[in-house]
Amino acid sequence: MTERKQANRYAVVDLEATNSSSDAKIIQIGIVIVEAGQIVETYATDINPYEKLDYHIRELTGITDQQLAVAPDFGQVAKEIYDLLEDTIFVAHNVSFDANLLAEALFFEGYDLHTPRVDTVELAQLFFPTLDKYSLINLAKELDLELEQAHTAISDATATAHLLLKIQEKIQQLPKQTVGHILDFADHLLYESRLVIDELYPTLSDYLPEHLVLVGGLCLKKPAVLQAPYHLSTDFATNLALLGLDERPQQLAFAQIMEKRLQDENAHVHFIQAQAGIGKTYGYLLSALAHSNQPILAVVPTKILQQQIMENEGKRLSEVFHTDLASIKSPRHYLKLDTFWRTLERQDENRLLNRYKMHLLVWLCETETGDLDELKQQRYQAYFDELQHDGNWNEQSLFGEWDFWYRVQEAARSSHVTLTNHAYFLEHVSDTPWMQERLLIIDEAQKLVLAAEEYASQELSISDCEALLQSKLDRTSQLLEKRLLEACSFELSHLLEQFRATGRRELTAEDLETLRQNLEELGDSDFQDWVWLLGQKREFWLEERRVDEKRLSFLRASQEDVLDVASLLPNSKICCISATLEISKKVNVADLLGFKEVTFDRLPSQQIENQLIVYPRTLPDLVALNKEEHAAFIAQYIQDVIVLGRPMLVLLTSIHLLLELSRILEDAGIPHLAQHRHGTEMAIKRRFEKGEVPILLGTGAFWEGVDFASQPQLVQVIPRLPFENPQDRFVRKVNRRLKAEGKNPFYDYHLPMMMLKLKQAIGRSNRFAGQRSCILLLDNRLIDKQYGQQIKTFLKTEYQLESLEPERLVERMEQFLEER
C-alpha cells in the first residue's frame, strides 16, 4: 500500500498598505492557514506605519490613523509572522504584490522568506473560465465566498482561502485525463501555482464522470438528454404564471394579437407594432409554442440580443416547459476541435498562449455548444483567431460528429425553437431547407432593412490582391502576363493614392474599367471574384481599416437599389414585430422590405409613468463644437448627474466622440466602462449591471438591441438625437427611392425614423413595471430647429417631458426617482 503524501500547508495572505507602489508600508496583515481542504488557523494584526494615511486608503479600507497609532510596529510581530509562514506555500490574490512587500519587510528584520508562491487570480481564471472578471469582490459574488468586509486584510485573506478551497473542489471534479493534460502546460503558470494541481492529481479517480466523454484525448461534455416537452396552456396568463411572471396588460394584448394571426389562414405575412418594454419576447415565444404546430425560427437583430435571450427567456422556457431551444451564429464563433487538438501537440513558448490551452481544456468539460462567446475574459486574440471554426466539417476527422459546428447545425435543424440573428439569417435562408419550413418570427423587423443592406454589399481585399499580383509577378517569365500584372498593380496603387490624397471614397465604373479589362484579359482564375464584381452594376467605394496594427485596404460594392428582402424569405407564415414598424403616414417597414400584401396590427400606446425625459432650456449649438469641446460639454453634465448615485447609461452616435469622452472621464478619475475600449458589448453590459462601475458609454447595439432590466433605477444621457448620417449609402438609396415615389425623405422617413430610434433607446430602461428611469437629452435641435416641436409633441404622447433651467435638472431628476 502506497503511503499518502502529506498535504500541502498553504498560508493565504492579504496585506493592506499605505499605497500600491514598491515603497508602500504595511498597515494590516491577515493570514489564513489551509491544510487538507480545511482552514486550520488564522492570524490578524494592524501595523503602525508611523505616517498618516491618505484619504483614499482610509475610505477604501476603513482603517483610521487612531487605530494604527496603538498598533505594534512590524518589527514587533515579524518573528511571529515568519514562524507562521515558514514551511508553507504562500498564497494570495495577485501574489506578486503581497509576497514581495512582505518578503522585503521581513528581510529588513533579518528574516529571509523563500516560500513557494501561488496566485489565485490565475488559478481562478483557469478553473472558472466563463466568468468575466476575477477581482476578489466579483469572485465572492459568483462563487459565494465569505467576504464580510472587503479591503480589510483578514476578511480578504479569508475570502481568498475559501477561493482556494473552491479551486481545489473544482480540480477534484474534473476528470484525471483533463488535469493531467493541464499539468503538461502547468509550468507556464505564474510562480509555483502548479503545486495546487500537483497535490490533487494523484487523488483523482481514473474513471471518467458520466456526463463526459473522451474523444481524441480530449474530455468533452455530452449533450444534455432532452426531456419530453410539456404542452403549454392555450391561456397566455397561465403560462406566465408557470414561469413565475406577473401578468402585464400590454403584454397580454400583444400575445392575443399574435394568437389571432397565427390562426389566420387567409394571409401569411403579419406585422405587429407594439411599444418597447412590454415583454414582447415572451409574448411571441409563448404564443407560438402554444398556438402553432410548426417549429419556430426567431430572428433577432444582434448576436448580443441573441445571447441575452438564450441566457434569460430561453433558459427559463427550457427549465419550466422543457422547450428544446438552439442558437446558431456564424462558424467563427465556435471552437474547431481539430485545430485546438493540433495546438496542444506543438510546443509554444508564449506563456499566455499556453495558459489559454489549459483554460480551454477546463472549458471543454463544461460547454455543450463550443461557442467561444461563453469565454468572457480578455483573450490572447491571435490564438483565438486560429481556433475559430472555418465552417468546413469532415466526417472522417478525429472528432467527427463531436465537431461543435456540426452539432450546432444539427441542433438548429432539429430543435423546436431556433434563435439566430438578422445577418446570419439573410446569408443562409435561401440555401437552408430547415429555415424554409418554420414559423418565422422577425424581431425588431425595422433593423432587417439595414442588415439586408450589409448583406447586399460585397467586399474584396485590395491588400491581398496586391500581394497576389506581386507574387505572380515574381514567378512569371511570360512578357504579356508580366505587363498585365504590372498594369493591374499600377491601377490599384493609383486608386489608393487618389483616395489618400483627396479623401474621395466613391468610385465610378469608369474609374475601375481599365482594371477590369486587364484582369479579364489576364484570365487567371485566382482573380475571378474581381472580374465578376467589377462587371456588375454596382456602387463602389474604398475603405481602409487597421487590423493588428496594419493598414488594410478594401474595395466595397453594393447594388444601386434597396434590396427586395421579401423575395428572399420563405413562403411559410411570417410575423414581423417591432415598436417601430410604422415609420410615418407614407412609409412603413413592410414597404422597405418589399412586401405587397400584409396584415398590420397596432397595439395602442399607453402613457408611461415610470420614465421622465428632461432637457435644458438653453443649449449650445453642438454642430459648432469640435469633438474635444463636445466631449467636455457632455462630461460636465455627467459630473453633475453622477451625484444622483444611480447607474448611468450614456448613448452616443459617434465612436470617436465616445472614445474622447472616455479619455476625459478617465483623466477626471471617474470610473466607467466604454464600448470599444473595455471589452465586448456583452461583457461590459454584465459588469455594468453588477455595479462594478456607475457609468457605461455605448453606441451601436446599445441604442436598440440591449435591455437593462437588472437595475431598479437608471439614468440615461443622450447627447445627440440619433439621425442617420446623410452621407451613408443606404440613406442615399432610400432618399432616391422616396423622391421617385413623390415623398419627402426628411419628413416622411429620416425624422420619424430618428424619433422611433430615440423611443427604442428610451425603452432600454423600461423593462419591467417597477423600474424607474430619467432620460436627459442634450441636443439643441430640440429647441432651435423648426422640427424640434414635432419631436417634443411625439415624445409627449407617451412620456413625461419637461424643459428646465440647467441648474434645476439634477434636483428634478432626484425628485422623480425618489417618488413611489
Automatic annotation (TrEMBL):
<keyword id="KW-0347">Helicase</keyword>
<dbReference type="GO" id="GO:0016818">
    <property type="term" value="F:hydrolase activity, acting on acid anhydrides, in phosphorus-containing anhydrides"/>
</dbReference>
<feature type="short sequence motif" description="DEAH box">
    <location>
        <begin position="443"/>
        <end position="446"/>
    </location>
</feature>
<dbReference type="GO" id="GO:0004386">
    <property type="term" value="F:helicase activity"/>
</dbReference>
<dbReference type="Pfam" id="PF13307">
    <property type="entry name" value="Helicase_C_2"/>
</dbReference>
<dbReference type="InterPro" id="IPR006054">
    <property type="entry name" value="DnaQ"/>
</dbReference>
<feature type="binding site">
    <location>
        <begin position="274"/>
        <end position="281"/>
    </location>
    <ligand>
        <name>ATP</name>
    </ligand>
</feature>
<dbReference type="Pfam" id="PF00929">
    <property type="entry name" value="RNase_T"/>
</dbReference>
<comment type="similarity">
    <text>Belongs to the helicase family. DinG subfamily. Type 2 sub-subfamily.</text>
</comment>
<comment type="function">
    <text>3'-5' exonuclease.</text>
</comment>
<dbReference type="GO" id="GO:0008408">
    <property type="term" value="F:3'-5' exonuclease activity"/>
</dbReference>
<dbReference type="GO" id="GO:0045004">
    <property type="term" value="P:DNA replication proofreading"/>
</dbReference>
<dbReference type="GO" id="GO:0005524">
    <property type="term" value="F:ATP binding"/>
</dbReference>
<dbReference type="InterPro" id="IPR006555">
    <property type="entry name" value="ATP-dep_Helicase_C"/>
</dbReference>
<dbReference type="Pfam" id="PF00270">
    <property type="entry name" value="DEAD"/>
</dbReference>
<dbReference type="InterPro" id="IPR027417">
    <property type="entry name" value="P-loop_NTPase"/>
</dbReference>
<keyword id="KW-0269">Exonuclease</keyword>
<dbReference type="InterPro" id="IPR012337">
    <property type="entry name" value="RNaseH-like_sf"/>
</dbReference>
<dbReference type="InterPro" id="IPR001650">
    <property type="entry name" value="Helicase_C-like"/>
</dbReference>
<keyword id="KW-0378">Hydrolase</keyword>
<keyword id="KW-0235">DNA replication</keyword>
<keyword id="KW-0547">Nucleotide-binding</keyword>
<feature type="domain" description="Helicase C-terminal">
    <location>
        <begin position="636"/>
        <end position="810"/>
    </location>
</feature>
<keyword id="KW-0808">Transferase</keyword>
<dbReference type="InterPro" id="IPR013520">
    <property type="entry name" value="Ribonucl_H"/>
</dbReference>
<dbReference type="InterPro" id="IPR006310">
    <property type="entry name" value="DinG"/>
</dbReference>
<keyword id="KW-0239">DNA-directed DNA polymerase</keyword>
<keyword id="KW-0548">Nucleotidyltransferase</keyword>
<keyword id="KW-0067">ATP-binding</keyword>
<dbReference type="InterPro" id="IPR014013">
    <property type="entry name" value="Helic_SF1/SF2_ATP-bd_DinG/Rad3"/>
</dbReference>
<keyword id="KW-0540">Nuclease</keyword>
<dbReference type="InterPro" id="IPR036397">
    <property type="entry name" value="RNaseH_sf"/>
</dbReference>
<feature type="domain" description="Helicase ATP-binding">
    <location>
        <begin position="237"/>
        <end position="519"/>
    </location>
</feature>
<protein>
    <recommendedName>
        <fullName>3'-5' exonuclease DinG</fullName>
        <ecNumber>3.1.-.-</ecNumber>
    </recommendedName>
</protein>
<dbReference type="GO" id="GO:0003677">
    <property type="term" value="F:DNA binding"/>
</dbReference>
<dbReference type="GO" id="GO:0005829">
    <property type="term" value="C:cytosol"/>
</dbReference>
<dbReference type="InterPro" id="IPR011545">
    <property type="entry name" value="DEAD/DEAH_box_helicase_dom"/>
</dbReference>
<dbReference type="GO" id="GO:0003887">
    <property type="term" value="F:DNA-directed DNA polymerase activity"/>
</dbReference>
